[in-house]
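hey all, quick one before standup. I had two proteins in the batch that finished overnight and I want to keep them in one place so we stop losing track of which output belongs to which input. First protein below, input sequence then structure tokens straight from the run.
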Amino acid sequence: MKIRNFIFGIALICSICFTSCSDGSSSSDSNDTSSRVLDLRIKKDGVAYNPSREIKREGENAEITKTDRVEVAAVEGGIKFSITPPEETTYILIQRIEENGLYSTKLDVPLNSAKEFIYPLCEPGEKYKFCVRIETGDRLNAYEDFLTITATDGIGDIDYSNLKSSRHLNLSYDGTKPTCQIIDCIPPEAKNVKAFISYSVTNSNTINWDATDSANEVLWLGNYKGDVSEIISSEELYEAKDYSSENPNVDGYYKNPDQPFKYFLDNSNKSYLFAQYTYTFELEMEGQENFMWRTASIDSEPIRIK
């Protein structure tokens, strides 16, 4: 009888310990998972409060920032942009800048559209910083106007607090085509959500965007555009840059995907490949339904390919 009670007691203690450990582990896993997932859905009141984004006011009106080419104002529905680009403008890009310097949500402004519109991806009381890039001719000839304003209205925002370098994107290369795998990421819920991948090459496993010497500079290779998928493996490159050209300024330097990925990569004469994965999407904006939005880029680690 004593032996049976002893065995029952041991079993009961083991059961309690197992249940306690199991519950603790499950809770920890759940919290760890929530801290890993990058949720790119637009949420109202869904962005973590940032104490450095306090409201700045001049009297009863929210602050207004103006440059020679761009003016912003907090209005009903979001932030109103008024852009006056030079006549020779070839490209307009609005980029939001986070407190840590990250360039996050981007908006490509069509050249044939009105240059006055309301930017809706914002929340009341949040301070936003923007870089408006206006290119004239090519990427080297550009104006960059920086603006700061506090929103008083908007449809919601995207929370990038869980965006960690290389945590959400694995890159591999089989000698013919690259493969990108997205991990722990929820795409935006919007119209026409697509995948946009930009490939670049360099000679180091550390990216130095400011390098200007040929040995360490980062060279953009080309883009992939397609349907959203957790794994994308493709040889396609759009607007690919052909480094085999003797004269990079001749027509056709940027080519359509009529040759495989390997051709452009081999002619780049670089040893490391890396990818930047973004989601493109559309929002219903009054009179501007075809504006193309891009999330912050999800970067891979550079991988050695030569």
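OK second protein, same deal, sequence then tokens:
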Amino acid sequence: MLLLGNLHYILTHLMRRLQLFLLFSLGVCINCIAQLTPHTQQRIDSLFSIAHEPFFKQTRQFNISLLWIEQLAVQDKQFAMLAKVYIIKAELNLHAADTIAAITEINKAVGLLSYIDNESTVSNSQALLAALYIRAGNKNRGTNLLRQSALGGRDRVTFSDEWLSTIHARAQANALLNDNKALQLDYNGAANMARKAGAQPLYRVNNLFAESFLQAGDTNKAFEVLDALISDTGFTAAQTKQLYSRLIIYSVKAGRFGKLTEYYSRLKKLNNMVTGKELQNESLLATGLYKEYLGINKDAEAAYIQLVTDYEQHGPTQTNIEGMIRLANLYVKTAPYRASYYFDLLKKELTGGLLQTPTGKLYRQTLAAYKSGNTSPLIKQDTAYQNRLSVATRELEYQYQVLKEKQDNALLKQRQQLQAIIHAKQRQQYVLYILILALIIVVTAGIILLMNWRRKQARKTHEAEKLRLEHEHKAILAKALTKAQEEERAAIAETLHSEVAAMLAVARLNLSADERQATPANGKQIRVAADILARLTQTIRDMSHRLMPLGLKQMGLEAAINEIAKEINQTGMVGVETLFVNVNSAALPDDMQINIYRMVQELFQNMLKHAHARHAFLQVAQHTDSLNIIFEDDGVGVISEEKLTGAGLVMMRKRAEYYGGSLTIDTRNGGGSTFVIDLKI
């Protein structure tokens, strides 16, 4: 026996050594293969996603793959990949409720962060490790890491899967801390960035934050985050179906039943259009909750049973486990033995850290209700008592039904009478409303007609008054022009009488012989007479210009004005420059040309008489519906009020107003004057 025992010990020892050797050899081989594989990062991401499934169970193949990647990361000093391996290990330890081992792996990962160069990868790892610390019970370290991974710092990047993973981890950490304020701040920033990136990123962000708000116990906020997506477009049919399924689920959990029927009707239309196991499971859970809310427990039970069937065929998921919990809850009072069967199944699945999730809390709440339901005092009563109680109950129920029918009939009659009275009053009110409305319409129409009539009368009165004022103004202008013409004629008559007649008499005396001496005029007398006749010729020419400038008729407005400027320039006293812009004399009436000529003539005369200027500039510009005259000189200016109100300037203003225009004078003492005349064509 001793020999057999030693032999067994030796064989066992050899087998263990052989297993270690084979495992080491396998690891080395796989390590070499991994070095040649370009998709190592994809493999670690795949293992990471699998490890974070709520109901994931470790397998030998999973552990070997994780060991290979760890060896490769250590050998090649891939610190980011190695940190992710430690994060996966910590996640697995938390699944197994081994918090000490989990914290050990977390500490290893934290120690590697200082060797990672990529800031976004560091931020992502900090957020993941913060959530793991909090789940392991070390909230202080978790909070510190969470603060270091704040979204307001180096995480301000474009939308990417790594960025989404970071905010997901932060959301989970804040949910575990029940820090709804920080969760709301992260959601606002993430939603703004996702909204700029498009509909699909916004859908992903709102879904993950809805789950986080639900985990934090804020079911109302989870509902609002999903409800905000309804107005957006660009989602696929599958995403829309998932959205309405989750809206129904969150509405029931939040106690917000206002839009529940609307959501369910839209979900029914999408059920036949979109298929898929997980989508179908969420739709079944939403259907069960909706039917249970309506009290149609049979339909709710059918939906939950389909979820239990999915669990039996494909294994546990968060959706079918919740369906099983709610099915057990339906059976607590009606079929306790069935509830017991499902609670036994749930006990095997919900272990370790899963009991702290929302699904685990729902399970514990339902289990407590099931256990309290097994202690009903009515089950302990004897059979005879139950029979007597049953007969008495049926008799009372019959009497109650008879009384209820009588009361219902009497109440129905009263309601019918009341409805008839209400209808009669409503008809009277409708007639009264119609009459009042008609009266209001008639009065309003009368007021509108009266206001229109008064407006028309006022417009007519205004137009008549305007026309009268225009006539009066024109009459005043005509009177002023007539007066000016009479004054001009009087001046011409005075000139003829005083100057022309006198000059002619002197010339006649000088040219005629002395009758007493009977001798002819000598040379001196002839020269005096010739000089007098020359001055007489100039005087008569000036008078003819004052009456009607011949150059205006013969050469046109522009040439006539230039002729005046030429004559002034020939004196050598003043230099006059003229500029005509688009002036078309043929397009101007004759009387207007004469008045323009007179006003320019008056401007030149004022300059020669009063300004003592050395230079002057005249510009005449014609536009589509107006004509502008600008005259500038460098003389002494109009320095007295008497000159500003002189007859010449007053006459110029009257002429301008006659054509709907104006005269503006800008004078500076010692700095010249500017005259601007605007006329309407």
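Flagging for whoever picks this up: The longest strand covers residues 672-680. Residues 555-680 form a domain with the Heat Shock Protein 90 fold (CATH 3.30.565.10).
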